Amino acid sequence: MKMQHSLFALAVATLVAGAAVAAEPEDIIKYRKNVMKATAGHMGATAAIVTGKVDYKGDLADHAKAIQALTKDTAALFPKDSDFGDTEALDAVWKKNAEFKKHAQQVKAKADAFVKVVATNDKAKIANGFKELNDSCKSCHKEFRKEQK
Ligand code: ASC
User: Fold this and answer.
1) Is 43 in the pocket of ligand 1 (CB under 6 A)?
2) Is the shortest distance between the CB of 138 and ligand 1 below 6 Å?
3) What is the structure's pLDDT at 21?
4) By CB atoms within 10 Å of each CB, which of 12, 83, 112, 114 scores lowest?
């Protein structure tokens, strides 16, 4: 508890001071994995709603907006020096960086489109929008991630 408090105080102090601390690559990798896992969680929850396995339609817009927020700048999660260690990112992320960025942009575009389509309440359109979003995640993973899950 005490430890948590002091870490929190440090974080606040750092934010207030506006100190620009260069992040460790390991911390960046951990951070982007958490962002990806969070995205996967919302994708999984969305899939369960869209396929009718659960009846939480009221949550759909929240999941869509969360995915939109989490995918707004995927390329920024892959700075140059974060290409080693405990990561499933392939070298292609950096070697074919322009192509990688294009994929990341496409995921963002599909996530933006999905938020809009959810608002229409049109079941078929929602299912199609979700498929397009999922396919864009998949195509980027296929080319740029080691393990395909
Ligand atoms: C997800 C998730 C991924 C992608 C991928 C697409 O929901 O966690 O990694 O979509 O499975 O096929």
Assistant:
1) yes
2) yes
3) 75
4) 12
Closest CA to 75 of 98, 109, 91: 98
Instruction: List the residue whose alpha carbon is closest to atom 2 of ligand 1.
Output: 40
Write the pLDDT tens digit of every residue in 119-146.
999 999 999 999 999 999 999 999 999 9
* CA 149 – CA 145 distance, rounded (Å): 10
Mean pLDDT of the 3-22 span: 62
Residue 12, number of CB atoms within 10 A of its CB: 10
**Is the CB of residue 70 below 6 angstroms from any atom belonging to ligand 1?**
no
**For 103-122, how does the pLDDT look when each residue is reduced to its tens digit (9 = 90+)?**
999 999 999 999 999 999 99
pTM strictly above 0.90: no
CATH of domain 25-144: 1.20.120.10
CA-43 nearest atom, ligand 1: 7
Domain residue ranges of the chain, discontinuous segments joined by +? 25-144
